[in-house]
Specification:
The protein has 280 residues and is an alpha/beta fold. Helix content is 44%, strand content 20%. It folds into 2 domains: 31 residues, no CATH class; 247 residues, 3-Layer(aba) Sandwich (Rossmann fold), CATH 3.40.50.
Length: 280
């Protein structure tokens, strides 16, 4: 079909990731697409966040991982001068300290990735106040807090913000009411960030993943089936064909953080294998 790349090839060269798209003889390489960029990522010691951190480093970025646990270990495993800092996004003081540490380590900030998040399953009217408050304080308020403290550094020289929302923030899912509500809030907040920072040279975009193969998904399988009697894996297979991979989300995040996406601002990109259009 016209306009569809004929070949997509990924290779690894040293610690850089290369993606080459060939169409009518044209090749676009993503080697070093984030070369020299300084990035702060929250919730990045495992899962999607870890994959994004690894992809950023492979693309040439210098990275600081901020997480409530495991940040130092993840940074050591990733290597390439990656720095880990402890951060609880529910605490303004903790966030301020983490951003300050990132600034000391990197000397500035070009990219912010808000990935820290939690989820819980349950009928909306049966959730406890603590469960609902946790969804809000980590996923929505936490995203805002990190943004609030990182903005002065980002606006100093322009940059990019990538917020991890969710397919649940675009299409409602049963048993994910609180999670869906706060992730929808992340999408709307991303649009406001894009509008308010556009003239300061900062872009903001959200990513809305469907079901991704992370440690969190195994617990989701158990809790969903216990609550409904229906295997979640069956619904995923029907809706999106398979689980997505953290690397697929990381590839999108890398692009959105790069200069190649300089005209992409205020978007919420769904990455779900087509589950959204099936309207399950």
């Amino acid at each position: 079909m016209p306009g569809i790349p004929a070949t997509v090839r990924r290779a690894m060269a040293g610690h850089h990731s290369t993606i080459t798209i060939t169409q009518t003889g044209e090749e676009i390489s993503m080697t070093g697409i984030l070369e020299g960029k300084r990035a702060l990522l929250t919730g990045a010691h495992r899962g999607i966040g870890r994959a994004v951190a690894e992809a950023f480093v492979a693309a040439g970025a210098r990275v600081v991982i901020a997480d409530i646990e495991g940040a130092d270990k993840a940074a050591l495993e990733i290597g390439h001068d990656t720095v880990g800092v402890t951060c609880d996004v529910r605490s303004g003081d903790s966030v301020a300290a983490a951003v300050a540490e990132a600034m000391r380590a990197l000397g500035g900030l070009d990219v912010l990735v808000n990935n820290a998040g939690v989820e819980c399953f349950g009928l909306l009217h049966e959730l406890t106040e603590d469960e609902f408050d946790r969804m809000y304080s980590v996923n929505l308020r936490g995203t805002w807090l990190v943004y609030k403290h990182a903005v002065p550094a980002l606006t100093d020289g322009g940059g990019a913000i990538v917020n991890l929302a969710s397919l649940a923030g675009v299409v409602g899912f049963p048993l994910l009411g609180a999670y869906a509500a706060v992730k929808a809030g992340v999408v709307r907040m991303t649009e406001v960030m894009a509008l308010e920072l556009r003239d300061l040279g900062v872009r903001a975009n959200a990513i809305c993943p469907g079901f991704i193969d992370t440690p969190m998904i195994e617990r989701a399988f158990t809790e969903f089936e216990a609550a409904t009697g229906t295997p979640l894996k069956d619904l995923i297979t029907l809706g999106q064909g398979r689980l997505g991979t953290p690397g697929e989300v990381a590839s999108l995040a890398t692009y959105l953080a790069s200069e190649g996406a300089s005209f992409v601002n205020g978007t919420a990109t769904v990455i779900d294998g087509g589950m959204n259009v099936r309207r399950l």
